[in-house]
Write a structure and sequence with these properties.
Blueprint (H helix, E strand, L loop, with lengths): L2 H21 L11 H8 L3 E9 L2 E8 L4 E8 L3 H11 L4 E4 L2 E8 L2 E8 L2 E8 L9 H6 L3
Antiparallel strand pairs: 1-2, 2-3, 3-7, 4-5, 5-6, 6-7
Amino acid sequence: MKKGKIVVPIVVMVIAALVVLSSGVLTVVNPFISTSAVSRELGGSWSVQNYYSGNNTVTEILIDSQGNVLVITQYSFPSVTQAQSFFYANSLGQVEQYENYLISYYSHGLSESLYILNGGKVYYISYVATTSTSMPSISQLLSLIK
């Protein structure tokens, strides 16, 4: 798989997250992943910037006091088979077993992306760091959905 083929979707996600952060289009409601859980797992002080729910999809955009951005999207499917099809169609390259999950992970520079298959749900986690922080591990990102 070519590096450019993966970098383009990540850049598009980062730009989309920044547009959403600055536009205020989405409304903030109760998050599906608490800021205290994110702070406990990743460190720092996190706040929910935007939250969107619709069409069996929930997206939460968080930012910490250092400017790191975390985007978590949960896709819910009526069957495990449909979730698997979506997961494989959107995988970021190599699919591997990690703990009790199937994951697809990609990291480039100060951004990383992770797809996680968990039964009838697929999670997409994108983390964009500032130059002053380190990147979270796969284990830390997985802990956000446990």
